[in-house]
Amino acid sequence: MAERPLILVSNDDGVNAEGNIVLREALAEWADVVTVAPLHEQSGQSHAISLHRPLRHRQLDERTHAIDGTPVDCVYVALFREDLLPRRPDMVVSGINHGPNLGADVHYSGTVAAAREGALRGIPAIAFSALGGLAALAPAATHASALARRAFEATHPEGRPLLLNVNIPTEVRGIRATRLGHRQYSEGVDVRKDPRGGDYYWIGGPGGVKHPPMDHADTAAVDAGFISITPLSLRATNADHLAFASWVAGDAPASTPEP
Q1: Residue 81's pLDDT band (boundaries 50, 70, 90)?
Q2: What 3-state DSSP class applies to 140?
Q3: 153 membership: H or E segment, kind and range
Q4: What would the CATH number be for the domain defined by 6-184+212-249?
Q5: What is the pLDDT of residues 175-189, one digit of tens each?
């Protein structure tokens, strides 16, 4: 009998979050699953890693571990501590996030960062997020498990780690491959006073979120009821600005290129 795939599961909502629980249960139907996730909620942590404090570990059961750290801490510790995983995982799966991660959300999301950390280590990785409330998470987990299995069974380009960002609407009409769209948040900083007269702040304005029209965008797909699958790149170099960087460095002709 062929060995079952090994999947490392993490998230940013915390190890006991409903989205994480239903995801690992769905994945366990076809793979061996080990969960290493934050002890507490870590939303919006992006790719933060803890370098100047100890990370506490709690083993909740044979295959479930909690780390008192960020999502990236969890994946990093799991991959470099031989006592948490029986072997190198075949895939890293993060989520299911309670709420979407669309457009520029991927830069702030701890859910996406956990998957990105796996991809940085050369392991195929997927981040799953779902719209709707708690009742939407179990159906989303069914879709997530099927998509993760399909991605696992596919052939990946050599030397190019797979990193997918997947958003699942409440009522699914189909699936679309997408680009990152744009979300317009109501931005601002709300200044308030504590009981002793000191200032404190809440980030974000009182309004909602708007999605400007964009062709092939994840925002448009989800708004129309489609699961969006967006491939993300680990390449941070902006090749379009290399000529400008060369000019700044003094290596280019005297004429100033467009930045």
Answers
A1: very high
A2: helix
A3: helix 137-153
A4: 3.40.1210.10
A5: 999 999 988 777 788
